[in-house]
Amino acid sequence: MKKIALGICSSISIYKACEIIRSFQKEDYEVQVIMTENATKLISPRLFSALTGRRVIVDLFKDEFPDEIAHVELAGEVSLLLVAPATANMIGKFASGIADDFLSTFHLAVKCPVLIAPAMNEAMFLHKQTQANIKKLRETGVRFVEPEKGYLACKDEGWGRLAPVEKIVDTSFQLLHRSQSFAGRIFLITAGPTREYSDPVRYLSNPSSGKMGYELAREALQRGAEVILVSGPTHIIPPPGARIKWVQTAEEMEREVARFFPKADVLVMAAAVADHRFSTVSSQKIKKQKKPKTIHLVPTPDILQKFGKKKGKRILVGFAAETEKVEENALKKAMQKNLDMIVANDITKKGTGFGSDYNQVTLVFPDGKSIRSSKRTKSEISAMVMDVIEEKIGKGS
Ligand code: PMT
What we know:
By secondary structure, the chain is of the alpha/beta class. The chain is about 35% helix and about 20% strand. The chain folds into 2 domains: about 5-180, Flavin prenyltransferase-like (Rossmann fold, 3-Layer(aba) Sandwich); about 185-395, 3-Layer(aba) Sandwich (Rossmann fold), CATH 3.40.50. The strands form 6 sheets. Strands 12-11-8-13-16-17-19-20 form an 8-stranded mixed β-sheet, with helices on both faces. Strand 6 (about 150) and strand 7 (about 155-160) form a beta hairpin. The longest helix has 17 residues, at about 165-180. Bound molecules: ligand PMT.
């Protein structure tokens, strides 16, 4: 599928969209241009129609696309949505999920990677609200080509100038290449906590939010994988496109992993599985007066260790939440569980790990080698993890 959608908003840098279109055409890509109403006031859609040989889409309900769900159909045909130039207004709409024109509606319909190249006045770009919108979008996996400092349309020098066309096009091709790298592969990913009940309302658990596992799933999907996401209870929305299997307990998680493991190429366990459960589970709520004097706990199944023994040609990745001797303990777990890699997080670090949007990790390999990250969003950490998996798949693991 060699087709991309190019969203064009109103900015003085709009003329650079012509060069962007040419660069894609040189690589045999079809380009479907979507303009905002305001963009058409700066430049006629006829120019882009002439360049692409296709009608430019502006309005959701215009007669050239009589079918009201054209945005849904087109969404399934493109491998990238690039918005260049993107205004503060469109970035704000994307971040808030507003869908009041073709481009913003289309953004909600696509499952392919989204790349945004902002262009605006410096004050607008550095405004707290614009930065918050960019941060929010980054956290949902949207990529940005940062604008540069330079001479702006308002005759000021400053940040906000559209990034060079070559940079926008290079980043697009990186994403396009990646969007196919896991095609035909099945990824089984676990996320979130488990709950081990003593009665219908009380349980043992941990503060895992599911964010890390969901970002991993999103990243694998963006690279073309089929993703089965086995998730403990969370309050966040799973990435669209993942086949989701909800579980509560470690035993339920084990059952779902067992169900899909035979056909999986990759198993990534980011779930924080409780290590113990209550030895007995009461079917009725235990009365205050009847509270037990001692609580008996028994170990839960170690899912990763069990499937590590049946690894075959699969790639197995674990996570390790550690409070001391982080890399040393993680390495031990990688060996015990027969893993290709373990992602070690030091959960004593504030603002990372459980519940946070950020993580700071070390990728530890069974041969003792390791790669350290700085504090980065969970979306960026997921890209790091998937880059390693991609390399291993490339080497025929
Ligand atoms: O969900 P978030 O809020 O985004 O937080 C992310 C996270 C901190 C939960 C995540 O990054 C993480 O570290 N997950 C693993 C936590 C953990 O259970 O670590 P562990 O060292 O206890 O387990 C090691 C590995 O064995 C893990 O891959 C775990 O999924 C697996 N395991 C553990 C116990 C068990 N009974 N069965 C398992 O398969």
